[in-house]
Amino acid sequence: MAYIHVDRAVKFFPREDGTEMLVLDGVSFDSKAYGITCLLGPSGCGKSTLLNVISGLERLDRGRVEIISNHRDTGARPPKLGYVFQDPRLLSWKRVEDNLIFALKGMKVPPSEWQERVHKYLDLVGLLEFRKQYPLYLSGGMRQRIGLARGLVVQPEVLLMDEPYSKLDQLTARKLREDTLSICALLKQTTLLVTHDVEEAAYMGDRIVVMSARPARVVDIFDNPFSALERNLDDVHFIEFKKKVLQTVLNLVKEEV
Ligand SMILES: Nc1ncnc2c1ncn2[C@@H]1O[C@H](COP(=O)(O)OP(=O)(O)OP(=O)(O)O)[C@@H](O)[C@H]1O
Ligand SMILES: [Mg+2]
Where does the ABC transporter domain start and stop, copy by copy (predicted)? Predict the structure, then answer.
C-alpha cells in the first residue's frame, strides 16, 4: 500500500525582476492507494512542479509532500518512484531491453532479477518480441509503451506520469490509455497522472483532483463512480460523470475571465 499525501503545499519561483511568483497556493490532497489519481489543471498551473516536488527535484516553501507506504521498512530510504514523461526519453543507443535494465541498475536491482523483470513488463505492454530492437525503429506509440514498461520495471511505490499521451495521435492514445488502465489495475499500481484533458482524467482517474490556473489551488476532488474495468467512454452514465467534471472546469474558466 502506498499513497501520496500533499498537505498545504506552497511553492514560489523567482521572476527575472527579482520578485516571486506563487505557483502552488496551499495544495492539499491524498492520492488513492492502489489506484490512479489524476491531477487535472490548465497549462502552466504547476502540475509538473508538483511532480518535481514529489520526486525531490524541487523543494516546497511551505507545507509537505509525503509518500506513505508500508513497503518502507525505515523512513530513511527515499521512496521508489517510476516516471513516464510526455516524451519517453529512451536512450537511442541502447536496445529496448537495455533501456529497462538501465533503470533497474539505477535502482540497484540485483542482476539476477533483470531478465525476469524485463520479460514481465515488456510482456505486459505487449512488446516482448521487440526487446532486441533499438527505439529508433519503433513507432511513437510503441516508444511510449516502452516508457511505461521502464517506469513499471522498477516496481515503484508510486508511478508518476506527466501528460504521457499528449504527443500521440488520437487512436494510439486511446488504446494506450485502455492498456495503461488495465495494467495499473492488474498491478494495483499507485499512480499520479498529470493531464489537462477532462475526458482522459474521467477515464483514467480513480480519483480526480481538479486544480485552478496558477497559482494552483485544489478546486474539487472527484472519486470515480466506475471501477477501472467498468469505464466505457460511450456509456451514458460515464458521459454524465465526465460532464460533471467538465462543468467544474468550465465554472473555473468563467471565474477567471
Ligand atoms: N524552475 C523554474 N523556475 C522558474 N519558474 C518555473 C520553473 N519551473 C516552472 N516554472 C513556472 O511555474 C509555472 C508552473 O509550471 P509547470 O511546468 O509546473 O506547469 P504545468 O501545469 O506542468 O504546465 P503544462 O500543462 O504546460 O505542462 C509556470 O509559470 C512556469 O513558467
Ligand atoms: Mg507540465
Answer: 4-238
Residue bearing the CA closest to ligand 1, atom 6 = 13
Domain hosting 169: range is 2-80+157-256
Q: Which pLDDT tens digit goes with each residue over 85-108?
A: 999 999 999 999 999 999 999 999
CATH no. for residue 24?
3.40.50.300
Pocket perturbation via mutation, ligand 1, pick of 12, 19, 23 by most ligand atoms within 8 A of CB: 23
State the total domains in the chain: 2
Angle separating helix axes 96-106 and 114-124, nearest 10 degrees: 120
142 and 199: one domain?
A: no
Taking only the tens place, the pLDDT of each residue in 121-142 is: 999 999 999 999 999 999 999 9
Instruction: Please state, rounded to an integer, the average pLDDT across all residues of the chain.
Output: 94
Residue ending a domain, among 125, 155, 185, is: 155
Q: Which residues contact 57 (CB under 8 A, 6 or more apart)?
A: none
Q: Running DSSP on this structure, what letter comes out for residue 78?
A: P
pLDDT in tens, 55-73: 999 999 999 999 998 866 5
Q: Is 252 in the pocket of ligand 1 (CB under 6 A)?
A: no
My answer on whether 246 and 228 are in the same domain is: yes
Strand order in the sheet with 20-30: 20-30, 2-14, 62-69
Q: Does ligand 1 come within 6 angstroms of the Cβ of 196?
A: yes
